[in-house]
Amino acid sequence: MELNIDRIRIFEGDIVKMRVDAIVNAANNTLLGGGGVDGAIHRAAGPALLEECKTLNGCPTGEAKITSGYLLPSKYIIHTVGPVWQGGEKGEDELLASCYRKSLELARDYRIKTIAFPAISTGAYGFPSERAAVIAASQVKEFLQKNEIPETVYLVCYNKDSCKSIKKALSKIL
Fold first, then answer.
1. What is the pLDDT of residues 104-131, one digit of tens each?
2. Which of 38, 93, 109, 161 is catalytic?
3. How far is CA 163 from the centre of its chain?
4. Is 93 labeled as catalytic in the residue annotation?
5. Distance CA 131, CA 121 (A)
6. Cα end-to-end distance, the chain, whole Å
7. Which domains does the chain have, with CATH numbers?
8. What is the Cα–Cα distance from 9 to 116, expressed in whole angstroms?
């Protein structure tokens, strides 16, 4: 299948305010909330999200689980646990790639047409932004070439530097 580049979009702003079918949460292994994007999503979704997450028994690094979006404008939240950067020799690249693949597989399985990803692992987990952007862009491109759903994937950046990394990565692969 030919990839229409309109299916991958860059959005600078707050992921919790996006009107998409699903947003991806860069979660920790407990799925019980934390800092950064994870904390913002839990606060915006309301206390019912925490109650559902308690029933999921956590999530291994590189995997993904889905919940309702509760008070968010999105119907679903896909929680994925990215790797903590340890210098690049501990399988971090493959674990990060798996986060994108597993999240996209859930989106396909739940017939989610629009999905928004934050820059997984690039905050407190310390994954180098440009390296993470290349992995994100290549995994999304590869998945969309083989699948009709999701129809649109947003790569969300929280600032100009993050957007610069994503734009550079996309220009290399598209």
1. 999 999 999 999 999 999 999 999 999 9
2. 38
3. 15
4. no
5. 11
6. 14
7. 11-173 (3.40.220.10)
8. 9
